[in-house]
Amino acid sequence: MQNSSIASKPVTPAQRVEAAKLTLNLDGRLALNIVETAATIGVKNPITVSRLVQRGLLHPSKATRRPLFPVEEIRRFLAATV
Questions:
Q1: Which domain range does residue 59 map to?
Q2: Residue 57: inside a domain, yes or no?
């Protein structure tokens, strides 16, 4: 008898960003995680956000272990790079 459970495929970073786009609501949010930030600025991979941080173009809050990006910082970044 074969096992009837179906093995699920791992979720790619691009799939996480696409899912975040569908559920993202900025009402009342002060900061976003890296996946939500990628969805907000319109890139497909959170690694792109990490590269923007490394280049000094985007500045996360350093108060937590994981980067949090203030909504105002995301707005500043988008306005500065037009």
A1: 31-80
A2: yes
- What's the structural domain count of the chain? 1
16 in a structural domain: no
**How far, in Å, CA of 26 to CA of 37, rounded?**
11
Secondary structure letter of residue 1 according to DSSP: -
69 exposed, middle or buried (CB, 10 Å; 0-12, 13-18, 19+)?
buried
Q: Which portions of the chain are predicted below pLDDT 70?
A: 1-6
pTM, two decimals, is: 0.82
pLDDT of residue 10: 87
pLDDT at 2: 56
Cβ-proximal residues to 46 (8 Å cutoff; 6+ apart), any chain:
13, 16, 17, 34, 35, 37, 38
Res 33: pLDDT: 95
